[in-house]
Specification:
Blueprint: E1 4-10, H1 16-22, H2 27-33, E2 34-38, H3 48-53, E3 60-64, E4 72-73, E5 76-77, H4 78-86, E6 91-95, H5 97-101, E7 118-119, E8 122-123, E9 134-137, H6 144-155, H7 169-172, H8 183-187
Parallel strand pairs: 1-2, 1-3, 3-6, 6-9
Antiparallel strand pairs: 4-5, 7-8
Amino acid sequence: MSKTRVLWLSAIACNGNTHSFLNYPFLEQFLNDFEFIYHPVIDSEYSLQEIVKNDIACDILLIEGSITSEFKRADVPVTKIIQKYSKIVKKIVTVGTCATFGGIFKDSEYKDVSGLHFDEEKLSDRFKHLRSKSISISGCPIHPEVLVNTLYSIKKDVELQLDAYFRPKEYFAYTVHNGCVRNEYFEYKIDEHKFGS
């Protein structure tokens, strides 16, 4: 099976999702199956300038960080890079809460900051035409296994069921409390006064 080509585009970000991804315990195996045409930290075939200047074949666009037309990478607005590669890739994945909902950078000096499809929890029309090919992996930071498993699903053409925020239901439909054997005590407000019982 050929390698899936991925572009990791960093917008206004703290790079926490990149650091989380680098903690994936099977990163070497992942890199046998996926190739980054560009990543801000991992050695890549192309520089960011080459990515911006040329149309380089790519399967998946990963976006990390909050989005605004005022923020530039390689002297090009990040929104233009997204538009350009959205025509090339088969899927777009927002990586983290900032790329999904706008995150903490909404309070920065930049104007019109949001996620790719959401301004906080409100659906935005800015990239409306990209909704059908988008998947959101929110989290601050993301869990590396959720991201990697989603990428493998895309690679294998698995149809993912998404929630209202375009997140895979397999990972985002339930909270950890749903599976807790002591959840009923919390629901009925039965407090425990002895630790561990």
